[in-house]
Design goal:
mainly beta; 4-stranded antiparallel beta sheet; 61% strand
C-alpha cells in the first residue's frame, strides 16, 4: 500500500503566502513524478504544478511566477510554495504521486492521490 498525505493548507488574505507539503510512503521503489492539482467547487480538477525525478517542472499558466514546486527525493516529499495568493486560488489542493512499486518485475507503475487540503484566500 502507498499513502500520500498533504499538509499545510489554511486560510490567508489575498497577497499572502502558504506552503503545502506532501509525502508519499509505503511500497514504493522509485517515484517518477509528483504533482499538485486543485479543484474548486463546480470545477474540474486541474494541474497546478508538477515535478519529475530529475527536477523538471511544469506549471499552470495561472500560477507561473507565483507558485514554486520543489522536491526532496530522499524523503519522497514535494512542496508547493504559494505566494501572492488570489481569491481565485481558493480550492482543495490534492497531491499525486506517480511511482514504481517495490517487489514487482517487470516494474509496475501506479498513481496515488492524497485526500486533499483546503486553501482559502479571502479578498
Amino acid at each position: 500500500q502507498v499513502q500520500v498525505v498533504e499538509s499545510g493548507g489554511g486560510s490567508v488574505q489575498a497577497g499572502g503566502s502558504l506552503r503545502l507539503s506532501c509525502s508519499a510512503s509505503g511500497n514504493i521503489f522509485r517515484i517518477n513524478a509528483m504533482g499538485w492539482y486543485r479543484q474548486a467547487p463546480g470545477n474540474q480538477r486541474e494541474l497546478v504544478a508538477g515535478i519529475t525525478s530529475d527536477g523538471s517542472t511544469n506549471y499552470a499558466g495561472s500560477v507561473k511566477g507565483r507558485f514554486t514546486i520543489s522536491r526532496d527525493n530522499a524523503k519522497n516529499t514535494v512542496y508547493l510554495q504559494m505566494n501572492s495568493l488570489k481569491p481565485e486560488d481558493t480550492a482543495v489542493y490534492f497531491c499525486n504521486a506517480d511511482y514504481y512499486l517495490m517487489g514487482t518485475w517487470p516494474s509496475q507503475s501506479a498513481r496515488s492521490w492524497g485526500k486533499g487540503t483546503q486553501v482559502t484566500v479571502s479578498s
